[in-house]
């Protein structure tokens, strides 16, 4: 790589941090216009020996796996005093209708697009979620919130009762009443998919990991907020998008996450899927836009290859303009 290429890459990386929309909290942001797909801000904090990386993740409303992906060189349990911790709080909106709830399973993150309030700017609210283990997949598709319940009871299905016995655990009760032993926590949103919920948890350090039997868990403080915001009947879209692309003006960003294990994607398959996704996204943009944005855009292969290798869930600028 020559000196000019190095300078160009550094300039492109710097541009990824320039767009910082207004936000009201770590989870609530001003929704960008339809032709802008990216929002949020990458931040940093410093670690201390009184906190684990998981404590920091919860404090900033970040899931466990996404925190580890953004900080591969920071010890999960004993971060070094003063170590810089990246807070991955910048996101590309999944390719889905910007309405109701959108849950991107490999990203392990939920997006809520509430109906705009008169005289207020529209918002997007995002929270980390846990999803189903490989043997208990979270289902994909469209559904809705059909019921809400505070302090729900939990009726373990026969499959979970059998699993507990097979693993040598104490037998599960027929009905688990509200309280600290209830895995649904204090708030539950029931989906139109039989047996699947969005709910709280009595094990918050598992949020942002593949630990559930198919349901989606939120931090207790997040589900309490969401429960009070989301009305019954809210549409829900559950998607599988480990590769996300989006525009910020004429700049193209990519956000890459590890694929789901059950998708059985090899490294070469993943790389090909990334290139296919970019081609398809550019073709769609060309069809939908009357501007010459595609004609004047070139993908920087060095930055793209680095993004493919790291798959750290952080939006990365991969384009450069040919106009200069």
What is the mean predicted local confidence, pLDDT? 89
Q: Count the E strands.
A: 20
Main sheet, how many strands, which sense, barrel? Answer: 9 strands, mixed
Q: What's the number of helices? A: 7
Describe the global form: globular
Structural class: alpha+beta
The helicity comes to 10-25%
Biggest sheet: strand arrangement: 1-8-7-6-15-10-11-12-14
User: How far do the termini sit from each other?
Assistant: 20 Å
* Sequence stretches where pLDDT stays below 50 over 5 or more residues: 1-24
Q: How large is the radius of gyration?
A: 21 Å
In N-to-C order, the SSE pattern is HEEEHHEEEEEEEHEEEEHEEEHEHEE
Q: How much β-strand is present in the residues? A: 25-35%
List keywords for this structure.
324 residues; alpha+beta; three-stranded antiparallel beta sheet; 7 helices; 24% helix; globular
Describe the model:
This protein has 324 residues and is an alpha+beta fold. 24% of the residues lie in helices and 26% in strands. The protein has seven helices and 20 strands. It has helices spanning 3-15, 53-59, 64-70, 158-166, 220-229, 267-288, 301-310; strands at residues 28-30, 38-40, 43-46, 84-87, 90-92, 100-104, 109-113, 123-128, 131-132, 141-150, 187-191, 197-199, 210-212, 216-217, 235-239, 243-248, 251-256, 297-299, 316-317, 319-321. A nine-stranded mixed beta sheet has the order 1-8-7-6-15-10-11-12-14, covered by helices on one side. A three-stranded antiparallel beta sheet has the order 16-17-19. Strands 2-5 form a two-stranded antiparallel sheet. A hairpin with a 5-residue loop joins strand 11 (187-191) and strand 12. The longest helix is centred in the last third of the chain and has 22 residues, at 267-288. The radius of gyration is 21 Å and the shape is globular. It starts with a helix and ends with a strand.
């Amino acid at each position: 790589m020559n000196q000019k290429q190095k300078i160009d890459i550094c300039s492109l990386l710097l541009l990824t941090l320039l767009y910082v929309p207004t936000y009201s909290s770590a989870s609530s942001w001003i929704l960008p216009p339809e032709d802008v797909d990216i929002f949020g801000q990458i931040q940093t904090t410093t670690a201390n020996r009184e906190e684990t990386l998981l404590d920091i993740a919860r404090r900033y409303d970040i899931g466990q796996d996404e925190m580890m992906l953004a900080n591969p060189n920071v010890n999960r349990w004993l971060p070094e005093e003063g170590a810089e911790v990246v807070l991955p709080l910048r996101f590309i909106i999944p390719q889905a209708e910007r309405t109701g709830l959108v849950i991107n399973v490999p990203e392990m993150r939920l997006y809520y697009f509430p109906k705009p309030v008169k005289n207020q700017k529209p918002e997007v609210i995002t929270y980390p979620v846990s999803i189903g283990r490989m043997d208990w997949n979270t289902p994909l598709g469209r559904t809705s919130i059909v019921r809400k319940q505070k302090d729900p009871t939990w009726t373990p299905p026969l499959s979970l009762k059998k699993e507990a016995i097979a693993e040598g655990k104490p037998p599960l009760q027929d009905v688990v009443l509200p309280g600290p032993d209830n895995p649904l926590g204090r708030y539950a949103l029931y989906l139109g998919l039989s047996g699947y919920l969005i709910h709280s948890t009595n094990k918050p350090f598992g949020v942002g990991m593949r630990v559930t039997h198919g349901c989606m868990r939120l931090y207790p403080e997040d589900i309490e907020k969401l429960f009070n915001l989301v009305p019954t009947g809210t549409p829900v879209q559950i998607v599988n998008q480990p590769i996300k692309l989006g525009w910020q003006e004429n700049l193209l960003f990519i956000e890459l996450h590890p694929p789901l294990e059950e998708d059985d994607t090899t490294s070469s398959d993943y790389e090909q899927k990334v290139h296919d996704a970019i081609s398809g996204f550019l073709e769609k943009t060309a069809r939908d836009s009357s501007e010459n944005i595609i004609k004047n855009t070139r993908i920087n292969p060095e930055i793209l290859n680095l993004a493919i290798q790291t798959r750290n869930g952080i939006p990365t600028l991969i384009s450069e303009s040919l106009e200069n």
